[in-house]
Write a structure and sequence with these properties.
By secondary structure, the protein is mainly β. It is built from no helices and five strands. The protein has a five-stranded antiparallel β-sheet with strand order 4-3-2-1-5, with no helix packed on it. A hairpin with a 4-residue loop joins strand 3 and strand 4.
């Protein structure tokens, strides 16, 4: 089954407890003999592996036209580095 999922897409999937959750596709694993597997990261930083048949598309990733590779860009919770203050103890 050929589905239009790519990196940065917002998708919906069912968790092991039966509840629905939303997340962003951050990695795609393609193998010959099974459906494509996607690694999905939720807003609370939990991650889940799901087959392409187990997820549904909510919103496609916005592709940055200035990006020469054409790879979708998405934001994560830690987009800027976090450093300790100069007076902090180690």
């Amino acid at each position: 089954m050929n589905r239009p999922f790519s990196l940065g897409d917002l998708v919906r999937f069912k968790t092991a407890s039966g509840q629905y959750s939303e997340g962003i596709v951050i990695h795609r694993i393609v193998e010959k003999r099974q459906p494509t597997i996607f690694l999905i990261e939720c807003a609370d930083r939990r991650r889940a592996f799901r087959f392409e048949t187990e997820i549904s598309l909510i919103a496609a990733a916005e592709i940055d036209e200035t990006n020469p590779l054409g790879i979708p860009r998405f934001e994560t919770a830690l987009t800027t580095p976090v450093f300790a203050s100069p007076g902090a103890d180690d």
